[in-house]
Amino acid sequence: MTNPLYDTLFAPHAGRQTPFLHLPDGEVITHAAFLRRAAQLAHALAAFGVATGDRVAVQVEKCPDMLALYAACAQSGAIFLPLNTAYTAAELSYFVEDSGAALLVGDPARPDLADVASKAGAAFATLSGAGGSLSDIADDQSDSYETVERGADDLAAFLYTSGTTGRSKGAMLSQGNLISNAQTLTDLWRFTADDVLLHALPIFHTHGLFVASNVMLIAGGAMVFLPKLDIDALIDWMPRATAMMGVPTFYTRLLDDDRFDRDLTANMRLFISGSAPLLAETHRQFEGRTGHRILERYGMTETNMSTSNPYDGDRRAGTVGLPLPDVELRVCDAQGTELPQGETGTIEVRGPNVFYGYWNMPEKTAEEIRPDGFFITGDLGVQDADGYVTIVGRGKDLIISGGYNVYPKEIELVLDEQPGVLESAVIGVPHADLGEVPLAVLVQAPGDRIDLEAVQAAVAGALARFKQPRHYEIVTELPRNTMGKVQKNALREVFGG
Prior knowledge:
Rossmann fold, GMP Synthetase, Chain A, domain 3, nine-stranded mixed beta sheet, four-stranded parallel beta sheet, about 30% helix
């Protein structure tokens, strides 16, 4: 029997006593031990009634067992649904209910999630670096599991991405989507079994899971598996590593530390940045300090990676490089007509990396995937004569803060419900560390007043921290065009967005 995702990423490591995960406390998990744990977790999933094709929603802090749970889902044919650990119970309810998840796996420190699962008709289990009910059951299971037969077109994962309507969309990713992208990136970035990757990214996100982890699984190398961004830990481990993947925040914070220099990075061969634009000044400072040129690339939840600056050749600051070898990219007008080279338009991509569509949203899928297979990214860009792509803006007013997507409409819906608020508009404003942060512009209702402390408290209870506005402004009215649409460009001019 075949299972392309498991057979490609995991099965080749059976019996390998080579290091796979280096943990902060010095523990080393070998490839073989990781696979044995994945098999135990696959049995534990079955004990909770999870069947082939079922969705397994997971909101736990980053730990080896969470990564092994991804492998267990691949081996058992379940669909892995990782969720941001910052989501509140109210936010989580939508994802669990919409996906029809059979099981919600949560952190033992979040007992409120049991109610979320119950209301959605899902089973509930706990998992953490220190144990949990799923871990406890897994401990008593066999460390071998008969891999379930699946095909390249079978779904392997759901990742939810919000839209400007405020309703999140479940992007359906197949086994073939994940395999093709990981294989392409492994070859393009020259990863081998000799590499040791500094991994401080979250694994509920495409970057940390389907780029970093999948690439290292195919290459057969090792990862320094840090629970979160910790500059001291990065600096401590860097002499023993060969590569790092991060968001711009990683690089700006490293540059703020005097210990980060050429000697420290002497063993490193590659620094990769993505999830948000990297300032040209950061590129210059980084090269001046270390002699390394950061490699920027571009991708989305729906496509994984679509472009990359070259490993050999000109890594151009301000660009996201060239389309991947198996990806077609075009820049189009609103009607989908390809524009002449050098003109700005909407980026569209087609290739084996492009997702299958949005869960239970056939109309939205038809809107965003053209009949010829090109996906409309919503990002505005331009491609030069050499093929390099530059992202010049983002449609739908998307904000990227610290590498996370923030959708203004979701925040505005919460703000508009607050006493004294007639209406609101949220824009992104520059932030030296996070790239952008949300700024809320509030219109006060006539004869009323806005209690900003109460508004902030309400927002904190409803939204994850990275979505919460860092700044608030109160105005008498929002700028609009003749059709009544709020002009956020005008707000950016006023408030520095």
